[in-house]
Specification:
Chain lengths: 221, 461
């Protein structure tokens, strides 16, 4: 997906860019409102991440301008302000959602997904492998043409595997992606989710293979 | 505030007392002046009549062939009897010889060559009398002999008349005093009226009404009102400054925390050694803890500030809760927690929606944070004509019964919260919001003991 990040703090911006690119997204970065305006004129974005306090003005004025120009691009506001009234204000101005800094990346992903799904979009980059079709945006999994319902954790696990077929993911890494850091989770918890996912994709010609001592990977049988 | 303000007395009372006091002094003075003046006037009149009587006797004295004879004229005494029933005494003396009258009436011995009138008050026959004496010098055998005529009258009638006059003067003084008291009360009342009107106007203002006072006031009160206005100005400035400061402080703290957190997460995805990974996880947990604490401290400051000056507007609790639940769904989804909403119909209440939203969000945050994976959190809103009851039930195992009472204290966390990031302010915030609206926060375990049931009660009106 293509993101525009509007954020003036250079180190935070590069950390977010780093992370979003790690997940395979294309991200442009604008450090102020005038740059952001240039970006949105030349490029269509799937989603805009917008900071409120910017050197050349208030992010809310950019948001208002976007909505005044009838731009439909979803906007998620990244705010350091904790005042509830501020958050309510950005929603009234047409933001799709907001996150308070510092934010959990899985929450950002979840909110991006929720916003895009609310907009009724189906992503163009559906994953097909074997008899398996997966739309990461709507979370729709089809096995041999039949819809299979997925729970959130199963969906995210499948997404991680499908982003890099044949690549081995260690249990520790999967725990970090699936669980928040404020809970103690044993690595064995992953086995439960892998087990469930295996059942759901059974018969598709695709399998999740256990690589002893290293982790798991998805591959064609 | 008013309990702490010591009163230094009432202006109205002081003004009334001063005015009434002055009126009393003036009335007493009036009484004395009237009394003295009338007394003098009465005495002078009496003296004149006595003298006129003596003079008319003198006029009736005839000196014929060295014989001095007195034919007492009727009018001389009748003019006195006109005045009152007092007894009249007289004595006509030639030299030391009494020609007629009461020869024991003590007549003053005239100075040689003295003529004219003498008046004195003396006691005669056991009564106080006023006496007028007139003298004429007759030349007999080459010797000048004084002819002395004294007329005296008792003073009973005079005293009675004076008593009458005193009563009248007293009545006059009292009447003057009564009128002065009425005027004093009215004056005091009307001179503090502008003060009372100003006080009423300022105290009727809403807690957030920080407009200056523009109504015209008397010149004497202008300095007070000017100071009040500049005080209001300073207050408004300082309030907006502290709000800006909180926003700025949050920005300065949270942005670097966000950088560190994101960098740590990114690094975690790249490294493999378990001990490094654990260190990074610890780091992220610490960042989450401090940012959550900072957020809740700011929330708590905001709640205390807004609850102090609660501004009520009617709003629908149903909309507010539904919106919040929808917003938190993505977060709940991360743990595959299902958020159930049990609401029917609108639940209109009067209060500060921002505060209520903050309270409900804190409770929902708690429920999602502590509930196990793939469990349910049930949000229900019910109520009757007087109360709305919003309950949040989770399956997080519930509280220890002996801890429940202390949980809403600041920074107190239940034993079940060990191992989870938190600041211990969420329930405090929820309780303070409920109490500011005249409601309460109830904490209990669900009947089956599987989790907690936290309920916010808000009055409907």
């Amino acid at each position: 997906m293509r993101f525009l990040l509007v954020e003036d703090n250079q180190s935070l911006a590069s950390a977010i860019l780093d992370r979003l690119r790690l997940d395979g997204h294309v991200v442009d970065h604008a450090a102020n409102i005038s740059l952001a305006e240039e970006f949105v004129i030349t490029t269509d974005y799937d989603l805009i991440l917008l900071d409120i306090m910017l050197p050349d003005g208030d992010g809310r004025s950019f948001l208002k301008m976007q909505r005044d120009h009838r731009s439909e691009t979803p906007v998620i506001v990244l705010t350091a302000r904790s005042e509830v009234s501020d958050r309510v204000g950005v929603l009234d101005l047409g933001a799709d959602d907001y996150l308070t800094k510092p934010f959990d990346f899985s929450e950002l992903e979840a909110r991006c997904r929720a916003v895009l799904r609310r907009r009724g979009g189906r992503s163009s980059n559906q994953k097909r492998i074997g008899g398996l079709t997966f739309d990461p945006l709507s979370g729709l999994l089809e096995v041999c043409g039949l819809e299979v319902p997925l729970r959130n954790k199963e969906l995210r696990l499948l997404e991680i595997f499908l982003a890099a077929p044949d690549q081995i993911f260690s249990k520790a890494r999967l725990v970090d992606r699936l669980f928040s850091y404020d809970e103690e989770v044993s690595e064995n918890a992953i086995e439960v989710y892998v087990g469930r996912l295996r059942k759901k994709i059974a018969g598709s010609g695709v399998e999740i293979q256990t690589v002893r001592g290293l982790g798991y990977r998805i591959r064609l049988q | 505030m008013s309990d702490r303000l010591r009163s230094s007395g009432s202006i109205r009372r002081r003004l009334t007392i001063q005015l009434v006091g002055s009126a009393a002094v003036l009335a007493a003075l009036l009484f004395l002046i009237v009394q003295t003046f009338t007394r003098e006037l009465a005495e002078e009149t009496h003296d004149r009549i006595l003298l006129a009587s003596a003079t008319s006797i003198m006029d009736a004295v005839s000196v014929r062939a060295r014989e001095v004879s007195v034919d007492l004229p009727y009018a001389a005494l009748s003019m006195l009897s006109n005045v009152s029933d007092d007894r009249v005494f007289y004595r006509v003396m030639l030299g030391a010889e009494t020609l007629t009258g009461y020869d024991d009436l003590p007549v003053p011995r005239p100075e040689p060559r003295a003529i004219g009138a003498m008046f004195e008050t003396l006691v005669y026959k056991g009564e106080s009398v006023r006496m007028a004496t007139t003298v004429r010098w007759l030349s007999r055998n080459g010797v000048s002999t004084p002819l002395t005529i004294s007329v005296a009258q008792t003073r009973t009638g005079q005293t009675e008349r004076l008593a009458d006059l005193t009563r009248t003067a007293l009545l006059l003084g009292a009447g003057f005093f009564a009128v002065a008291v009425l005027l004093a009360v009215w004056t005091a009342q009307s001179s503090i009226r502008p003060l009372r009107e100003l006080a009423g106007m300022v105290s009727r203002r809403g807690p957030t009404d920080l407009r200056p006072v523009t109504r015209p006031v008397p010149a004497e009160m202008a300095p007070l009102v000017r100071s009040l206005n500049s005080f209001i100005d300073r207050l408004r400035l300082s309030l907006s400054r502290s709000e800006d400061f909180i926003a700025e402080a949050a920005h300065r703290v949270r942005t670097p925390l966000a950088t560190v957190r994101t960098q740590a997460e990114n690094t975690l995805h790249r490294i493999e050694r378990p001990e490094n990974r654990n260190a990074l996880r610890e780091m992220i947990r610490a960042i989450d803890e401090s940012s959550r604490a900072a957020g809740q401290l700011l929330d708590h400051a905001m709640v205390s500030f807004r609850a102090d000056s609660l501004e009520r507007t009617p709003f629908d609790l149903t909309d507010l809760v539904a919106e919040l639940v929808n917003r938190l769904r993505p977060v709940a989804d991360l743990k595959d927690i299902e958020l159930f909403l049990e609401i029917s119909g609108p639940h209109v209440m009067s209060g500060d929606p921002i505060l209520v939203q903050n309270a409900v969000r804190n409770l929902l945050d708690n429920a999602i944070k502590y509930a196990p994976e793939e469990s349910r959190v049930i949000v229900s809103l019910a109520g009757d004509a007087t109360t709305h009851v919003l309950c949040i039930r989770d399956a997080a195992g519930g509280f220890h019964e002996d801890e429940i009472d202390g949980l809403t204290e600041r920074f107190v966390r239940g034993r079940n919260a060990e191992g989870t990031v938190g600041s211990g302010l969420g329930l405090t915030i929820a309780r303070e919001v409920a109490e500011a609206h005249g409601g309460r926060l109830d904490i209990a375990n669900t009947k089956d003991g599987a989790g907690a049931c936290v309920c916010l009660h808000f009055p409907s009106a």
